[in-house]
Write a structure and sequence with these properties.
about 950 residues, mainly alpha, Rossmann fold, five-stranded parallel sheet, two-stranded antiparallel sheet, elongated, repeat
């Protein structure tokens, strides 16, 4: 006969609790009936809300229901309380508990781990460099007008993280288009740093990305198990951050469908928020718990073995019908029952009086002080004589255990604290100070393991937990003295996001309640209300900057953090106001200097940016993000040597892939392709799923004429992130260069579909249409590019070229003139304009012609990657003027000087074809040059 499997200790405890449970017969019967019903039945109650005042037994009933669900419905259950502060934490807690029951959410857990890693990277991304300013072939990158789809959805996701202000606070200072541009800017920054489109979506909208996977795996469990019941206790504290998510997974299909055999049980003090649940309240099974009737109270007292009528009357009188106190006062020993004669004493005193050991009595009182307990906190709270009694404490009726920690029932804890505060105000202060010092030491130990700036301690969850508990106890000990410091901490908490802000606000509320300090209580409730809004972090900061309690350094930091939000949103003028206010309050605040420098950089005010960044680095030389940002500023200024020095220094401090890639970009802009290739390869090896780094290496291969390698990398980048329009467009260029016209057209069209305002892709597709003789379609693309960005010089030049091919010479001249007006130093529109004038038989201005040739000659004489290009442009100018000896000399010099001449040869071939088309008189003399270039390409192509 097979041996029966043994019950777990937890199962035995639950069974004993069930067997000893008295009262709530109607509620127990109601849930039992739901266990009997088929989930598909109309009578099946799938969504319960248990509510009532503190102490009426909501959590106890929910635990009884959990036991009932396991025993009578063979259910898998989870039970979460106010330890969670957002939907992501709720899903994580549920996953951990399901795993303990053999139901592992493998894909969700893996995605959650990725989210934690990518979120850490995102935190750095928004404070460090912006996206790479990639130099596409043929001209400038198109403008970044926000797409309509981003105007609301993106901001909602960002606001949920506290990474970007939401609609609420921004409407006073910004129109929706500006907000959308900020959201797109964030997406671009994260795309540049994180690489994968999926990772960007995960960071920007974690609930939206994680919930479908969570629900899919919940569905898999529901198929294998008869019932799954999810309990959410203390919902009066978590409802503000869980309401919308729970509503969506239960009553909508936005994230997928909830299996029919999944039940939800909410337990909390108040009613559900009608503003969220609205028309669905009729689907909610409301269970209102009130105090025990006298009959129920007497039944519980009798079940505890108390028969003395006088004792029974005292228990009923002291408890007021609260099930928790009835149970506690009925659990005393027989000897203590005889002392229950004085109903004027508090229930707390009566409950503890039964404990004959004074050390344990004292330990029970002292352990009411911490917010929650583990053995380390217990030992810090009690005397040395009671240090080994933690197992005894955990067995007391009013403690509940969860995830290795335990906590007092809120009603009991509140009563005990009130008693001790009244009996000994000095003892109250000393005990809280003692615990604060303990948490301070543990915080210090955590700091010793964190090799980072002090501001970055806030990113470590263990450090934050110690800091929060330390602050709670110091507030309780000396609320008026410590409140300014803690409000300063809340500035940091808001900087971390709304979940951390919510924790600190709740802690402040708890400290105000426990110490009976109306000021703390008001602050906590105000900040909790702020944190519940879509743009909670920004709202909280706006409250804090006007708080008279906040000291100048913390006020400065609040302005700097608020400035960061505005900078990320693209509100540069507002950001500058915030950073400048921060600098007035605290001139040496590195965060303010760095933030203002980043803002100046984004505005193109590079000299101002350098001033602030130099100051910040001088104050904090190890700030690798500021050094890398200064390197980016130098790169944008064309000061490549300085940029290389900074990127190299930043890499020595923090060799992240994006910093290595930034140095690679600098090398590439200098024409030092082997070094660029080495850096991009190093960065890709460090982060193989970073699609932009892979694509950047692909573009480097393209510039070197290694078409096959370029194609492989760009295809790989697109596989990682199919929405990377830049990589798709670059692959289209490779197809153009290798004469795969249909594939090129397909890629350029796809890039435009991904981003309708992508000016470079529109110009590239127009060039393909030109080569295919489809001039009307080429014009349509160029009209769109110019409409998107009226200062897009390349688009005017290319449209003039199309008009030139079509014989619409006056329109061509007008477009070339506009291109020259936008950028007088660019030679191509000058060259093309001169050809149109020759076609029309007009005399070209001699001074103008000589100025263009002189400018190109001076550029050709300078060393660097642009010198061969200048020689190639001179070659074209001399071909158009039929000066063949000079043309031959310039072409040979261009090809000989270019270390990687294939791209130059290919582009020159295209230009010769255009010249042959518009100036038939020189066509015959151009043919030998074309043959020379084709021969070179044929010879080099196999190795490319």
């Amino acid at each position: 006969m097979a041996e029966q499997s043994r019950l777990s200790r937890q199962e035995i405890i639950r069974r004993r609790q069930r067997d000893g449970f008295v009262g709530r017969r109607r509620e127990m019967a109601r849930f039992m009936e739901s266990c009997r019903q088929a989930p598909e039945s109309d009578a099946f109650e799938f969504f319960f809300h248990v509510h009532g005042n503190a102490g009426v037994g909501k959590s106890t009933l929910a635990r009884q229901w959990e036991t009932m669900a396991r025993e009578h419905a063979a259910a898998v259950t989870t039970f979460v309380d106010d330890d969670i502060h957002d939907a992501v934490e709720a899903m994580e807690a549920i996953s951990i508990q399901l795993a303990r029951q053999g139901c592992v959410l493998k894909r969700f857990d893996k995605l959650l781990m990725t989210y934690r890693q990518r979120r850490h990277q995102a935190d750095a991304a928004l404070d460090d460099l912006g996206p790479e300013a990639e130099a596409d072939i043929g001209g400038a990158v198109g403008s970044q007008t926000a797409s309509v789809s981003s105007r609301v959805a993106t901001l909602i996701g960002l606001a949920g993280l506290g990474m970007l202000p939401g609609v609420g606070a921004l409407t006073a200072v910004i129109d929706p288009q500006q907000v959308a541009q900020g959201a797109d800017r964030v997406r671009a920054q994260l795309s540049a740093r994180l690489g994968s489109h999926a990772d960007v979506h995960l960071v920007m909208k974690p609930v939206e990305a994680l919930t479908p996977v969570f629900l899919e795996e919940i569905g898999d469990i529901a198929q294998r198990r008869p019932r799954l019941v999810l309990f959410f206790d203390v919902y009066e504290r978590t409802g503000a951050v869980l309401d919308s998510w729970l509503h969506d997974i239960v009553f909508s299909e936005d994230f997928g469908t909830l299996p029919v055999n999944v039940q939800i049980v909410l337990s909390g003090q108040g009613r559900l928020n009608a503003g969220v649940w609205g028309n669905w309240l009729g689907q909610v099974s409301e269970v209102l718990l009130e105090e025990f009737t006298e009959e129920e109270s007497r039944a519980l007292v009798a079940a505890k073995g108390i028969t003395d009528s006088q004792v029974v009357d005292v228990v009923l009188g002291l408890s007021g019908g609260l099930p928790l106190l009835v149970d506690m006062l009925s659990s005393i020993g027989p000897a203590a029952q005889k002392t229950l004669g004085d109903p004027s004493d508090t229930a707390v005193e009566r409950f503890l009086r039964w404990e004959s050991d004074p050390r344990r009595r004292e330990a029970a009182l002292r352990c009411a002080f911490p917010l929650q307990l583990n053995e380390d906190i217990y030992r810090a709270a009690v005397s040395e004589a009671s240090a080994d009694d933690y197992p005894w404490l955990r067995g007391l009726a009013f403690l509940s255990s969860h995830a290795g920690r335990c906590r007092y029932h809120r009603t009991v804890r509140s009563s005990m604290l009130r008693l001790q505060r009244g009996l000994s105000p000095i003892g109250w202060m000393e005990q809280h100070t003692r615990l604060a010092d303990s948490f301070g030491r543990w915080r210090g130990s955590a700091e010793s393991t964190l090799a980072c700036e002090s501001d970055l301690y806030w990113r470590d969850a263990v450090w934050r937990e110690h800091r929060l508990n330390e602050s709670y106890h110091r507030l309780c000990a000396m609320p008026r003295t410590v409140v300014a410091e803690v409000l300063g901490q809340i500035v940091h908490a808001a900087d971390q996001g709304v979940a951390t802000l919510h924790r600190w606000a709740q802690m402040l509320t708890q400290a105000g309640h426990d110490s009976e300090d109306d000021g703390l209580l008001a602050w906590g409730r105000r900040l909790e209300a702020a944190g519940a809004q879509s743009d909670g972090a920004l709202v909280a900061l706006s409250i804090l900057v006007s708080a008279p309690e906040l000291g100048a350094p913390s006020r400065a930091l609040a302005h700097a953090v608020r400035g960061r939000y505005y900078r990320v949103a693209g509100l540069y003028e507002q950001a500058l106001v915030e950073f400048e206010t921060a600098q007035v309050l605290a001139p040496s605040l590195v965060r303010g200097l760095y933030g203002r420098g980043r803002t100046y950089q984004s505005m193109g005010r590079y000299d101002d940016a350098l001033t602030d960044l130099n100051h910040a680095i001088g104050l904090s030389p190890g700030l690798s993000g500021a050094v890398a940002t200064r390197g980016e500023t130098y790169r944008r200024m064309g000061r490549f040597v300085d940029a290389l020095a900074d990127f190299t220094k930043a890499m020595d401090e923090d060799p992240q892939a994006w910093i290595v890639g930034s140095r690679g970009l600098t090398y590439r802009q200098m024409g030092r392709y082997p070094e660029a290739l080495a850096d991009f390869t190093r960065a890709v090896n460090a982060d193989p799923q970073h699609d932009r780094l892979v694509a950047s290496r692909g573009l480097t291969y393209l510039l070197m004429g290694r078409w096959n390698d370029a194609l492989n990398d760009l295809t790989r980048a697109i596989t990682i992130n199919p929405d990377n329009s830049w990589a798709v467009n670059c692959r289209g260029l490779v197809h153009q260069l290798t004469d795969r016209r249909d594939e090129a057209l397909t890629d350029h069209t796809r890039a435009i579909a991904l981003r309708s305002d992508y000016g470079t892709a529109l110009v590239c597709r127009s060039s393909m249409y030109q080569l295919m003789g489809r001039y009307d379609e080429a014009l349509a693309d160029l009209h769109q590019a110019i409409a998107t960005d009226p200062q897009y010089e390349t688009a005017f030049t290319e449209r003039g070229r199309v008009y030139q091919r079509m014989g619409r010479h006056e329109e061509a001249l007008a477009d070339f003139a506009q291109a020259i007006a936008i950028n007088p130093d660019e030679a191509t529109p000058h060259y093309l304009r001169s050809i149109v004038l020759r076609q029309l038989g007009r005399e070209e201005d001699g001074a103008h012609r000589h100025r263009v040739i002189r400018a190109l000659t001076e550029e050709a004489a300078r060393e660097g990657r642009d010198s061969p290009k200048a020689h190639a442009k001179l070659f074209l100018v001399f071909c158009a003027r039929a000066e063949w000896e000079s043309a031959t000399s310039q072409l040979n010099t261009a090809l000989n000087d270019a270390p990687y001449p294939l791209l130059l040869a290919k582009v020159t071939l295209v230009e010769l074809e255009h010249l042959q088309h518009v100036l038939p008189a020189v066509a015959e003399r151009i043919t030998p040059f074309q043959e020379q270039l084709r021969h070179m390409l044929t010879q080099r192509m196999p190795g490319s």
